[in-house]
Amino acid sequence: MNIRENLEKWEEEYLSPYATLSKNSCGRLREEEPCDIRPVFQRDRDRIIHSKSFRRLKDKTQVFLSPMGDHYRTRLTHTLEVSQNARTIARALRLNEELVEAIALGHDLGHTPFGHAGERALNRVCPYGFDHAMQSVRTVDLLEKDGQGLNLTFEVRDGIRNHQTKGHPMTLEGCIVRLSDKIAYIHHDMDDAIRAGILKESDVPCGIREIIGETTGDRLDHFIHDIVSESSKKDRILMSKPVAEAMRQLRLFMFERVYTNPQAKGEEGKAEVLMETLYDYYMHHIDAMPEDFLALIDRGEARERVVCDYVGSMTDRFALAKYEELFVPKSWRY
Length: 334
Fold this sequence. Notes:
The chain is mainly α and 334 residues long.
């Protein structure tokens, strides 16, 4: 018996009867020889961490465009916080921590530069639309490794596809990531908004603070404990009704005070124009794109989709540099 088989046996003996076992995976798009050391979900996690799209997350906006300070979240730090929250919950419930981690680390690989502003712009101009969850799946299926994709398991791809509020993951591990994503962004976006002077802790409505805590840290802790206690020994991932309602109200509060706040979002219109302009440029100058994207068109992928792939894959910094190179006279740059 090799190391992987021993680990699969441990999963079978230790994990909850509701956990997704590595040995029971539905498989990959292309069949592969199993690794002698790593179970399939650990292998997926490793492939995501070593991917180019994962590394690019460090230079992609979470909420604040080019914030003045080193401690604001980026798309990468958001991803790591989602992963940590999800792993904590999964371990407490004896679910498959490696599956949870792989889904969490991969859930935003298809996100655009400039956060949801970039996503809105590409969704508006591309006739196929643009949704970052579906783009994350497209990234792991097709765009990584020069068109070969990462060939991840069905369970990880399902969790990535269904991580948004509207999603319905097929595994409990995917359900954990779906909740952990919301918990993470509510927690850290509020923390960043307080750092930016947009909010004070005392601005959070009293009714919410009475249920889930007085500080961002208290609320994060309360969310996680509530999910663990409500979901223990059950075949669903649950929150208690009062805490679920408090989270809904807190999310509405964040949309009102932060996500539509001119101080945080006033520059997003400019970012959208930049994204639309780059999309239009590459639609009319296809040959200016890198060879690996041109190869996708040669394989039959629609031009509009591939231009979206290229512009959407850019980091904030690279998109700005390309815009400056293409549209700003050299004598104007400073």
